[in-house]
Design a protein that fits this description.
Keywords: Lipid metabolism, Methyltransferase, S-adenosyl-L-methionine, Transferase. By secondary structure, the protein is an alpha/beta fold. It folds into 2 domains: 111 residues, no CATH class; 292 residues, Vaccinia Virus protein VP39 (Rossmann fold). Helix content is 43%, strand content 16%. The chain has 17 helices and 11 strands. The strands form 2 sheets. Strands 7-6-5-8-9-11-10 form a 7-stranded mixed β-sheet. The protein is elongated and about 75 Å long. The protein starts with 9 loop residues before the first helix and ends with a helix. The N terminus is likely disordered.
Length: 432
């Protein structure tokens, strides 16, 4: 026998189901596919369920992955303030892998609500934007697939989100800096000054993205720059920018794994938002390769997101939205782990700067760009892909604001055989 709820009770039954799945009495307002509603109109979280299949997604994965699948597929929308609602939900969402790991009493409540709603059945197919990679973790082939999944979404889409600088990492919002573009230029200039770039110096940018840093290094400092990326779409865009700037004699863009760079030594190496893709097991290799590519007294600037020590990195968990939809195989490590890997390779760490609050501001600016031009974003990719980016960037902004994760610039040097570093005696002189 199939049990289906009376339409007058659908929203109330769904409300009970969602609360059971979340394991909380968080005030919710639910609006169902048939127009029925339940919960206070001024509830801090107001959800609209457009399709009954959303319930099957939640029954099979009552966690962040289930909710993310609902949102990406368009089965669920947030009708209250997006940032505030995510903040409320993140406080109560666990990382269970499915209903078999839910408390027995909670499971029974879910079953009763599901019966009333006729929600039982096989799990719906995940949205097309979800990915699970095969092959050996952090092999060159798998790393290339992971990078392609995230970065080959379309250059026009990224231009819409990132703005004219096409810079996809934490900006630096100094005193008086109000625009995203100015903050991003301030960031790449900060990196160039920390690396001590000037005319004739040779710099390698690992994970060069769309070429903003290498163009700035050549145009403003006269450096010879090599940028490497695993994304063909990024490389094509960057090469076009380089040619338009008249910098082809100073800048080279390659589609190349950093492990395959053979034409060192370089005077400096920048790695801006790339180390998160390396993985803990490969950090020693990563640091040693970069060390070997530098001249004595050559500098490394490693700009990377970090997690708190003692807190598990969630990017690799099987119920992680980030791992399935955004950064497959991405791994965040504590700052100390990154510093240890760099020092173990032979570097001397000279300076560390935390930029956590700056990344929260950057992410909010990207979300604003996306929401302002939502119809264009959907046209350029798909509604599902645009939803992925909105969810991940908003949730990430909240995570940085809470201090659950941070972002740091670690400046290190390959000392000469005699131990000299070539660094000025003061930080003021370093940044002048």
């Amino acid at each position: 026998m199939k049990y289906v709820a009376n339409s007058q009770n659908n929203a109330s039954a769904v409300q009970a189901l969602v609360r059971a799945a979340l394991g909380t009495e968080l005030p919710l307002r639910i609006r169902c596919w048939d127009g029925t509603t339940a919960g206070p109109p001024d509830a801090p979280v107001r959800l609209a369920l457009h399709r009954r299949r959303a319930l099957r997604r939640l029954l099979w994965a009552p966690n962040e992955l289930g909710l993310a699948r609902c949102f990406v597929a368009g089965d669920l929308d947030v009708e209250s303030d997006f940032f505030d609602s995510l903040s409320q939900l993140e406080r109560v969402i666990g990382s269970q892998s499915g209903p078999l790991e839910v408390d027995r009493a909670v499971k029974w409540d879910m079953i009763k609500s599901g019966l009333r709603l006729g929600a039982f059945g096989l799990p719906p197919k995940p949205p097309a934007e979800e990915i699970r990679l095969g092959g050996r973790l952090h092999s060159k082939r798998r790393d290339a697939e992971a990078i392609s999944h995230h970065y080959d979404v379309g250059n026009d889409f990224y231009a819409l989100v990132l703005g004219p600088t096409m810079t996809y990492s934490c900006a630096v919002w100094g005193e008086g800096v109000e625009s995203l573009d100015d903050a991003q230029i301030a960031k790449v200039d900060l990196v160039a000054r920390k690396l001590g770039l000037d005319e004739g110096k040779r710099v390698l940018d690992v994970g060069c993205g769309w070429g903003t840093f290498v163009i700035h290094a050549a145009k403003q400092y006269g450096a010879h720059a090599v940028g490497v990326t695993l994304s063909q779409a990024q490389a094509d865009f960057a090469r076009k920018r380089v040619a338009e700037e008249g910098l082809s004699d100073l800048v080279e863009i390659r589609v190349q794994d950093y492990r395959d760079v053979r034409d060192g030594p370089f005077d400096a190496i920048s790695s801006i938002g790339m180390a998160e893709h390396v993985g803990l097991s490969m950090l020693p290799t990563y640091a040693k390769v970069l060390y070997d590519l530098l001249k004595p007294e050559g500098r490394l600037l490693n700009h990377a997101i970090s997690r708190k020590a003692g807190v598990r990195g969630r990017t690799g968990e099987r119920t992680s939205f980030i791992n399935r939809y955004v950064f497959p195989d991405g791994e965040l490590e504590p700052l100390g782990v990154m510093v240890d890997a760099i020092e173990d390779a032979g570097f001397e760490v000279r300076d560390v700067e935390a930029l956590r609050e700056h990344y929260a501001l950057t992410l909010r600016a990207w979300v604003a760009n996306l929401e302002t031009r939502w119809a264009d974003a959907v046209r350029l990719t798909s509604e599902g892909r645009a939803r992925v980016w909105r969810l991940y960037m908003a949730a990430s902004a909240l995570t940085f604001e809470r201090g659950s994760i941070g972002v740091n610039q670690v400046l290190a040097v390959r000392p000469s055989d005699s131990g000299t570093s070539g660094f000025p005696r003061t930080r003021t002189a370093l940044l002048s």
